[in-house]
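Data availability (excerpt). All sequences and predicted token strings are deposited with the supplementary files. A representative entry, Deoxyribose-phosphate aldolase, is shown inline so that the format can be inspected without opening the archive.
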Amino acid sequence: MNIASFIDHTLLKPEATAEDVRALVEEAARLQTFSVCVSPSTLPVEVPEGLKVATVCGFPSGAHHSAIKAAEAADSAKRGADEVDMVINLAHACSNDFAAVEADIRAVREALPKNVLLKVILETAALSDEQITECCLAAERAGAEFVKTSTGFHPAGGASVHAVELMHKAVGGRLGIKASGGIRDFETAQKMIDAGASRLGCSASAAIIKGASK
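Structure token line:
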């Protein structure tokens, strides 16, 4: 298994400079990760052929109005993003208003060109098992291509094997599953993949890939 091909090599620290982003791209190219994931304000990002560019939307709270998320996503696509990772409105999810969750996701999906992939960040550590499942199904109905565990910024925590297993049970085989948040070594990464993850969001990509070779 080529674990590098699972990885979105990620830099979302708000203080990240243009020089930091260039260093990220150089490291991603050397490691041969699937993509780099950067903040929308850093776009466009020049990358070598074969390296995808992902960005985030409504990040990290998800509390932005759907129209703002849609506009942000559309602008990112125009600036060269191949993939957009949007954060759901957690208040809707925690209130069990899954129609509103679906509508929020659909607004972003419809604002994006068809060739730009949409991942939906659920912030699973803040949700119940039932809410995770229902949000996955809402993302599928809204036309998203992936569901994703976490922003990595929420105090409730990041990815867990249990959450990935729930997501895989809900939509695995129909939608991709991205595990993100707190994945810092190969052993954890492997557990996420075994649970059903088809993509990993990581900033410790070099350590993970080095661990895979041991």
